[in-house]
Specification:
alpha+beta; four-stranded mixed sheet; 15 helices; about 25% strand; elongated
Length: about 475
Amino acid sequence: MDLSSSTLCPQNLTKPYFISFHKQPHIRSHLQFQTPPKTLTLDPKFTITGGCKLSGHVPISGSKNSALSILAATLCCSGTSKLHGVPNLSDTRTMASILRSLGAEIEACNGEMWVNADGVGSVEPCPEDIGKIRGGFFVIGPLLARFGEAVVALPGGCDIGTRPVDLYIRGLRALGAIVELGDGKVRAQAANGRGLVGGRFKLDHPSVGATETLMMAACMADGVTVLSNVAKEPEVIDLARFLTGSGACVEGAGSDTLYIKGKNQLHGSECVVPPDRIEAGTFMLAAAITRSSISMSPVIPSHVACLIDKLLAAGCKITCAHDTLEVSAVPDDVGHNLQGFDVRTCPFPGFPTDLQPQTMVLLTTCDGSSIVEETVFENRMGHVRELQKLGARIRVCGSTAVICGKEKGSALLSSHVVAKDLRGGVSLVLAGLAAEGVTEISGIAHIDRGYENLDAKLRLLGADIKRLIPLASPL
C-alpha cells in the first residue's frame, strides 16, 4: 500500500494487532530483569559522528508503556501470566523489581516474562523503585482491587511537568476507597473493610495513567463501574485486552467511556505486547532528519497515523505492507528540501506529546518556519536549550515554540549536550545524526528507560554512534 499519494483507509486503521508464536519448551532464566549489584557508576555517554545516511531495516520492540501497565495488572490475577515481547528496558526492570518487592515471582528470558502473583504478601511496594518511574504508581489499583488496601509512594519519572495523582485518588474514592496522602505516600483501603464497589467517575482530562489504574481497580470491584472522559490511547486498549483475556469484563476501550463489570477473581493469561508506536515514530523521524530511506517492523500504522500525515505533507514517501513501514526522505533529482509544518500535541488520536521533541529536530532541518504547541505537559520544552547548543534556531514562549528551518538542510553543528528526560534525550540523538562533527550526549540513562538497544539499532542502519561506559567501582 503506497501512502505517499493517498490517505490511510479507515479499514486499515482499525484492524487489531495480531501476532503468532510457536509454543515450545523454554529454558527459563533469571539472567534478565535482575537488579544489578550496587556500584559507583559514572554517567555513560553517546558520541555521534553526524552526516551518515541511514539504510536498511530496524526491528521495533514491544511497547514500553503497554508493558508497564500489563505488568501491574498481573497483580490482579491468580496463577501465572505469560507476556511476550516485553522490552528489556530500565523501566521494565524497575517494574519487575516493584512486583518482586510485593512477593510476586518473576522469570524472564529473551523478551518473554512469566509473572505469578499468588505469593504477594505485602501491599506496600519498595518506595525507592516507585520513585524511579511514573508507571510504578499503577499498582495501587490492582492492590486495592485484590487485597482491599495499598500503601504506595508518590511516583517518579521524567521532569516534564506536573502530573498530579489527584485523579487517581478521587477515582478510587468513587469506587469506595478511603484514601489519604501524607509523608510522600498514598494510603488507601476499602471503606467497607472487604473490597471496592462499582461506581461512576468522570475524569477531568483523559489521563492515560488514571484511566489504566481505575480500570484495573474496577475489574474486581463489586458491581458495575462507568468511567467517562477516559483516555483512548492504544496502551489503554492493550491493557483492556489483557484484562479481558484474564476473565475481566471491560467494554468500550478505545472510546471515551468504559463499562466494567467486576469479577471476584481473575486468572493468569498469555498475551503479546504490541510494538512501541513511539519507538516506531522516532525511527521514522530519524529517516526524515537524515534524508534517508529505512524500513521497520512490526508497526501498526493507525498508531502513528498523525505522524504519517505530517511526514507526507513535508515531502516524505511512506509505504506500508502488512506490518512493515518504509520511510524515504531521500532528496529528488531537483534537490527539493522537506517543508516545515505546524504541530499541536493532543491526546490520542491527536499528535503524541512523546514525539514532540523528536519532531522539533526535524523541523530545524526543513524549509520555512514552523510552530510547535505543547498542550499535554507544561514543562516539555527542556530539550530546546540543548538543541540551541547544536545551532537550532528555536524561540520559546510558554508552551509554544517557533522553529526557524534552513532552506538547504540542517544547520546543526556538534556540541556537548545533556539528556534531561527520555524523549528530549532521544531528540538530541536524532540531532546528533544530522549535525556536522562529533556530538557528545551525557545523561543517556534517561534514554535507556524507553529505548531498547537504541545505539545498536542505529548502528544497524549505518549510524556512527558509540556508547562510552566509564569504569565503575564496587561499593
